[in-house]
Amino acid sequence: MPKKSDRRVALPAGLIPLLTQPELETYYGVSDFTVRQWIKDGMPVEPMRTSGTERVHRRFDLTSVKAWMAQRDERLVSAS
After folding, report:
1. CB-based contacts of 30, cutoff 8 Å, min separation 6
2. What's the rounded Cα separation, in Å, for the pair 68 and 61?
3. What are 35-77's pLDDT values in tens digits?
4. How many folded domains does the chain comprise?
């Protein structure tokens, strides 16, 4: 039986997955506190409801987050 990591399948062209908060934390190598601070600072979040629950889960479009980070970095540099 193949390992789970061996069963990865490439995404169809143009399909960009939304990341969970732990995945975003891992991607940037930061803590959950840092991601929550970024959200407070205006980082784009995609709310996602799961069927049968009222709870809204946060998902992150990495392309949007990268654009927000670049814009944020420009503002921080120009403010210095």
Report:
1. none
2. 11
3. 999 999 999 999 887 777 777 789 999 999 999 999 988 887 8
4. 1
